[in-house]
Amino acid sequence: MASLRRSLDRLYLAAGALAGLCLIAIGILVLLSIVTRLLGIYVAGLTDYAGYAMAASSFLALAYTFGCGGHIRVELVLAKFTGRRRRWAELWCLAVGTFLAGYLAWFSVKMVRVSHMLGDVSESADATPLWIPQTAMAVGAVLLAVALADRLISVALGAPLDGGVEAQAAHPEDVVGE
Amino acid sequence: MDQLLLTLIFLGVLFFLLGSGVWVGLSLLGVALVGMELFTSRPVGDAMATTIWTASSSWTLTALPLFIWMGEILFRTRLSEDLFTGLAPWLGGLPGRLLHVNIAGCAIFAAISGSSAATVATVGKMAIPELRRRGYPERMIIGTLAGAGTLGLLIPPSIILIVYGVTVNESIASLFMAGVLPGIMLAFLFMAYIVLHALLRPEGMPPRGEVFGFVQKLRNSVYLLPVVLLIIAVLGSIYAGIATATEAAVLGVTGSLILSALQRSLTRASFVASLMGALRTSCMIALILAGADFLSLAMGFTGLPRNLAAWIAGLELTPLALIAALTVFYIVLGCFLDGISAVVLTMAVVEPMVRQAGIDMLWFGIFLVIVVEMAQITPPVGFNLFVLQGMTGHQILYIARAALPMFFIMALAVVLVVAFPEIATWLPAQMRAGPPA
User: Fold this and answer.
1) Does A133 sit within 8 Å of B57, measured CB to CB?
2) Which tens digits make up the pLDDT trace of B79-93?
3) Which of B14, B272, B283 should be substituted to probe chain A, the one whose Cβ sees the most A Cβ atoms within 10 Å?
4) pLDDT in tens, B35-81
5) B99-103, B206-210, B431-435: lowest mean pLDDT where?
6) Pairwise CA distance, residues B45 & B36, whole Å
7) Which of B 312-371 lie inside 8 A of A, CB atoms?
8) Helix residue ranges, H only, B20-62
9) CB A132 within 8 A of CB B81
10) How far apart are CA A44 and CA B111, in angstroms?
11) Can you say whether the dihedral through the CA atoms of B256, B258, B259, B261 is positive or negative?
12) Mutant choice from A132, A152, A178 vs B, greatest count of B C-beta within 10 A
């Protein structure tokens, strides 16, 4: 069990790290597009690649952000509950969340398969086969669904719940980006 | 299907999912799913996946994580000290003295940061302890900081204006320029309030500290130079039409990294912390946007926004009455939701309504930001309040009471922007009149 726990956490973190690299890649691609434009060179698809990196960065970070408590939710009602009720409320959220994330994951994977089958390519000059960048979205969505299901099982088995609203105010660094 | 019933089902599912604590982005996904399943025969899941893919991989959206990253880098530099050192000598002579540092500091930092919480946190990090040490009234320190922090969203770059621009398909560069004058106006209104307060109640104010000579003032201003250069690089390049919002954001990130390196605050640890911090925030927003994109698609199929817009048009409300109603609506909504969720959640319905009424979408964006900002300092949900709670240890309600005068000043700003729309629309018009990009 403990080793499964460790490898799942590592998986989320690895995807998060990859997402971080994608964010750096966005910066580099945009910088390249500025430099090439100033030099008068035209490189096909730089802006499209930046868009793909954007999607990859957003989706690959989903599970990692969830693990850090980074996705916002309305805690007004949740914070009023304590003890068993709080746990049931949390289980409800996690169950609905797992279903919805699973739904997103299912159809993201299907989209990649369809793109691959039909040989869809990007409409602009780069003509990238779309299934390649779309894979990042599918992987990220699947990981989010896994992370939610993982948390659902943990909470059902009695894992401690987070602090709720109080935790939100804990440290300015945590909310600084909002 | 009966429109009223349809609306009630949508709202019912929405409030239940959001209210029970399901994550905002997933809630939007869920509402859209219910709507599509009930009211169309299209293959829902496939439409969802392609819609979300198209929206998430857009080039315009890349400005979002970059500007967030820039703020995260600058938050980890010595910038807050520099702002205080550079501004204090100039402002110490005004009635209200160093309280003005809160306003001016926030206004300046807002011009390189896209979020109000980052603005509050960066300026407050230095200003709160310094002002406390000098004996300024606690309520004024906290109130002015909470209010002025909202400038982070209004003065460009602005995360929420990017989100708005992407949602309603308006030029982000123009939106940014539209925010400049209202932001400066709001800063001056805050400062006027401090002056008035100090003149009416001089007994609470500490005596004037060190008086600086002119040369000393100038020497201290050198500390402001890096910030000013960054502002010129980011906003100047947008205004001059030589860079898009995304390109300006990259210039900003590069500049911030250089600044951070020159100040020796750039370490491996601080770099990774800023990167991952930016990643979490932009991922959170991306999930909400993904849900909202699917929701817009679903709404389009139900015809609800169209009918609602037609209904509103049938009421023959004046634009003024519509704006008044929307102001109240967003302030109430903002009591429960953060600004970004409130904007993306409602745009699918509000946009046709506003366009139908013939209201300029650039102007509406600025109006929306001010109103949503007011919600940032009202309890129970207000991110500026959360940040200040973390920094000062005061209760949310104490902070909200301290910020109440700022709430009314912002209401005054809304009235002014409604009465004189040119405050928002003049500058972007100048920009477009310039040479083509």
Assistant:
1) yes
2) 888 888 899 888 888
3) B283
4) 888 877 778 899 999 999 998 998 888 999 999 999 899 988 888 88
5) B431-435
6) 9
7) 336-338, 341
8) 24-39, 44-56
9) no
10) 33
11) positive
12) A178
> To which H or E segment does residue B241 belong?
none
Token pair 């046709």 is found at B352
Q: How far is the C-alpha of B305 from the C-alpha of B318, rounded, in Å?
A: 19
Question: CA angle, B245 as apex, B239 and B251 as ends, to 5°?
Answer: 90
Residue B241 token pair? 């039409």
Q: Is the link from the previous residue into B137 a cis peptide, with omega within 30 of 0?
A: no
C-alpha–C-alpha distance, residues A74 and A85, integer Å:
17
Q: Tell me how crowded residue A38 is: count the other CB atoms within 10 A of its CB.
A: 9
pTM of this structure = 0.88
As for the ipTM of the complex, it is: 0.91
Chain A, chain B: beta-carbon pairs less than 8 Å apart: 224
Judged by CB atoms closer than 8 Å, whether chains meet at B57 and A30 is answered as no
Q: Does B49 touch chain A (CB under 8 A)?
A: yes
- C-alpha span between B111 and B108 (Å, rounded): 5
How far from B211 is each of B92, B94, B208, CA to CA, in Å? 8, 12, 8
Q: A12 contacts in B (CB within 8 Å)?
A: none
Dihedral in degrees, nearest 10, Cα atoms B285, B286, B291, B293: 110
Q: How far apart are CA B424 and CA A150, in angstroms?
A: 48
The pLDDT tens digits of the residues spanning A20-42 come to 999 999 999 999 988 898 888 88
What's the gap between Cα A67 and its chain centre?
10
Taking the C-alpha atoms of residue B275 and residue B422, their distance in angstroms, rounded to an integer, is 38
Indicate yes or no: CB of A176 within 8 angstroms of CB of B118: yes
- Residue B152 structure tokens: 């982070």
The first and second tokens of residue B302, run together, are 């139900």
